[in-house]
Structure formats: C-alpha cells, structure tokens
Write a structure and sequence with these properties.
The complex is a heterodimer of chains A (219) and B (214). Chain A has 6 helices and 9 strands, in the order H-H-H-H-H-E-E-E-E-E-E-E-E-E-H. By secondary structure, chain A is α+β, with helices and mostly antiparallel strands. In chain A, strands 1, 2, 3, 5, 6, 7 and 8 form a 7-stranded antiparallel beta sheet that branches. A two-stranded antiparallel sheet of chain A has the order 4-9. In chain A, a hairpin with an 8-residue loop joins strand 2 and strand 3. In chain A, helix 2 packs across helix 3. The two termini of chain A are 33 Å apart. Chain B has 2 domains: 130 residues, RNA polymerase sigma factor, region 2, helix turn helix motif (Rna Polymerase Sigma Factor, Chain: A), CATH 1.10.1740.10; 57 residues, Arc Repressor Mutant, subunit A (Orthogonal Bundle), CATH 1.10.10.10. Chain B contains 10 helices and no strands. Chain B is globular. The termini of chain B are far apart. In chain B, 39% of the residues are buried. Classes of the chains: A alpha+beta (219), B mainly alpha (214). Chain A: It holds the Pfam family Cupin_7.
C-alpha cells in the first residue's frame, strides 16, 4: 500500500486525540496497513513511557490504594473472568464504533441506503454524531469519472473496495488520502468501480461545467 | 528556582540515548529493561493463573500513574472511575497481552487511551450537538497533579533520533494533552519555541518513519 496518514495524524490517532470520524478513517487504514501497524506500535511505546513517567503514589497514600484494590477485587469477583476480545481492540477507536468499523471492514454495504447523485455515483451517509465532520460512503460505477471538484476544508478518503486514479496517483483498497481546498482533481474509478469512505469538514464543491447541478444534487 | 526547575526537567524527563540509531528492534530493546521484564512476569502470572498477588503489585505500581494520567488530561472527575475500569480490563484481557509485542506499560497505555476515547465518545453522544468543549478546559486543576521531577527512564528506542527538547514537547503536547502555553511554561520555553520544536520533531519523524509516500 502506498498512501498512509501523515505522522502527525498518526500521533493524534495513537494518543486518542482525533475526532470520532477521523479516528474511524485512520482506524480503517490501521486495520489494513502493516506499515502503519508498526508505526502506531512505535508511537504507543511513547504513550507507555508517558504513563510510566507519571508520579507514583506517596508513601502515606499506600493504604488508600490498597483500599481501592480491595474494592477492585470485590468487583472482579462479580464479573466474567475473561472478556471476549474484539478483532478491533488494537484500534484507537471507540468501542461503540466497532460495529460500523466491522461493517466497513467486512464490506457489508448492501443494506446501506444509497442515494443516487449522478448516473454513476451513489452516496450513503453514515451517522457518526460527530458535529465536526460529515461521513459518507461514495460508490462509483466502473470507470466512472468523478466531476472535477475542490474541497472547502479538508477531505479524508479511505478506499474500501475497488480503486480509483487521479493525476496524482492510483489508489487501491486501504489507501488513505487527504486533500485540501487547493487540490482540484477529477478522479476516475477503476474497472470494478470503487467504494470510498469520505470524511469532510465541509461539503465538496463541484467546479466543472456540470458543477452547479451536481452541487444541487449532492446536498 | 527557575534554574532548578529547568534542570529537573532536562535531566530526567526523557531518557538520554545514543544519537546513533541502530536497527529499530523494539523487542530486544524493550526486554533490556529489568523492571519492564518484571512487570511482564507479573502480567503473565495474571494471565496464566489469575495470580492476585501479581495483580496487586501491578495495581500498586500502575494505578496511581493511570489516575495521574487521567487527571493530567482534564478528567479530574472521572479519573478514579476510569482507573477502576482500566484494571477490570487488565484482569479480563490479561490473556491477550503479548509480551513479545509490547511492554506492560505500553499495553496498559492502550487500554487507558481506549477507555478515554470510549468515555469521550459516550459523552459526545449524550450531548448531541451541545457545546462540547467544556470539560476539556479543566486544565488548571489537573496540572497540580503533575510532578516535575520525573523518574529516570531506560533507554528508549522509538524516538532516539529526536533530541531531548523535541521529545519533551511531543510527549507533553500529544500524550499529556497540554496546550502549547502550558507545555511552554513547564519547559521554560516560549509558545513559539514549542511550536517550532513540534515542527522540527515531526519533520525528523517523517523522514525516519516515513509519513509520506515513497
């Protein structure tokens, strides 16, 4: 895989600082990408070091800690000794979002509600309840040309199925791409079509001749 | 005082390490630390025989640190409850701990981080479209818990190609969730210097870990 989140984005992800939608996007890539799995593992060591560097308990508080420990033992006697481990455990994504991660990883797209925005493009909104970002799946038919557009703000894309290309490169499943308002591009889907997760903090703006119509459709 | 504080920070915050970076073999480097090795044994005892004495030792060492970690991140009110949850998870998931892959502190960090993510996510969902920036601003109260004199660390591998200032700044800003201003005050720098250290640190990391495509 060629396209990865930048190291700063990975740092924010690894330290748990990303908004839910972005964590979902980086998490999907993390799940796919061996290289980023290694990078995240390295950055997590820094997290472990940070934890170790925290002050330990003062001598006179030992008793309080022991009391808390007794309470803990009381609690573990009441629960299952072994928890089921999710396959998404390693991702820095909220557990409550594992279901959507699972759907996307397993490419379980059939029961999504697709809206047609042009003859060869469909959209499906994913409700992440993330006030800062809009999360959508975009589905392109085989060889579909996506009208030239720019982005107000940033757009984060993770290719989930199929592939697409633009003048910058060729993006296969798992690729993570970030574009900002300066990137004007007109991607073309591969011969098997393409499904992407697209996260925007502002809607796309189509700039080609069909632009006004598509802009109207896409809202 | 100023002098002293600077020294304390410089001396012990991050491990001093050889500027020459050898191959990044995390396993070897991680096992080199005898204390880390000892925690691994404890974890394995919890995993294999639900050893409560080993669990207690882990608790006495890590629970106060986990709590401070949450306090540091603006979660004064939730720190205790979350620390409790962290150790429940440690107990339940002990069998999935892989001592070849990570130190115990690293593994616990991921649990601490994910419970924080879960908590913030729940709160976000509760507050649907309310103003969400509240709790994060508890900064002042949390910083009281931070001890400037940090324990000296073992040689640490990942960021050996960063200088100490760069590492300090990254740790404070990304992992301790400090604002540039607070990080600056704690490191005796101006916020401008903090920003430029972050930039240079990210640049070094990019060139070594490869943030962009080749």
């Amino acid at each position: 895989m060629k396209y990865h989140p930048d190291i700063e984005l990975l740092l924010k992800y690894t330290s748990g600082k990303l908004e839910p939608s972005l964590a979902l996007a980086v998490g999907l890539h993390h799940k796919h990408c061996k290289i980023c799995q290694e990078r995240v593992a390295e950055l997590e060591i820094v997290g472990g070091e940070t934890l170790e560097s925290m002050p330990t308990v003062a001598d006179n508080e030992d008793q309080i800690v022991l009391k808390d420990f007794d309470k803990l033992l009381g609690a573990i006697d009441q629960i299952q000794p072994v928890a089921t481990i999710s396959e998404y455990e390693d991702l820095a994504v909220a557990e409550s979002d594992f279901d959507i991660v699972d759907k996307l990883v397993k490419q379980d797209f059939d029961d999504m509600e697709w809206r047609r925005v042009s003859p060869k493009i469909w959209k499906s909104t994913i409700a992440m309840n993330d006030a800062d970002f809009e999360v959508e799946l975009l589905k392109f038919a085989a060889n579909a040309k996506i009208p030239q557009h720019t982005h107000e703000g940033d757009e984060y894309t993770v290719v989930l199925q199929g592939d697409f290309s633009d003048s910058q490169g060729h993006y296969k499943a798992g690729s993570f791409i970030v574009q900002d308002e300066n990137d004007e591009h007109s991607p073309v889907a591969g011969e098997n079509g393409c499904i992407c997760l697209a996260i925007t903090n502002a809607p796309l703006k189509f700039t080609g001749t069909l632009g006004p119509i598509l802009n109207w459709f896409s809202h | 005082m100023q002098q002293e504080r600077q020294q304390a920070t410089n001396l012990v915050y991050w491990p001093v390490s050889s500027p020459k970076r050898q191959s990044v073999n995390m396993t070897n480097l991680q096992t080199a630390d005898p204390q880390a090795q000892c925690w691994k044994q404890h974890m394995l005892a919890v995993a294999s025989s639900q050893d409560r004495a080993a669990f207690q030792s882990l608790y006495l060492h890590f629970a106060p640190k986990v709590k401070s970690f949450y306090l540091n991140q603006g979660m004064a009110r939730q720190a205790e409850e979350l620390t409790h949850e962290v150790f429940i998870k440690i107990w339940q998931k002990a069998a999935s701990y892989n001592s070849e892959k990570a130190n115990v502190s690293t593994w616990i960090f991921t649990i601490v981080r994910n419970l924080r993510i879960d908590y913030l996510r729940r709160r976000r969902l509760d507050e649907v479209s309310q103003d969400e920036t509240h709790d994060v601003g508890e900064d002042g109260e949390l910083d009281l818990g931070v001890d400037l004199s940090r324990k000296k660390k073992q040689v640490q591998q990942v960021f050996t190609y960063l200088n100490e200032e760069q590492r300090n700044v990254l740790q404070k800003v990304y992992f301790e969730d400090k604002s540039h201003q607070i990080a600056a005050a704690e490191l005796d720098m101006t916020p401008g210097v903090v920003k430029s250290r972050i930039r240079s640190a990210l640049k070094v990391l990019r060139s070594h870990l490869g943030g962009e495509d080749k």
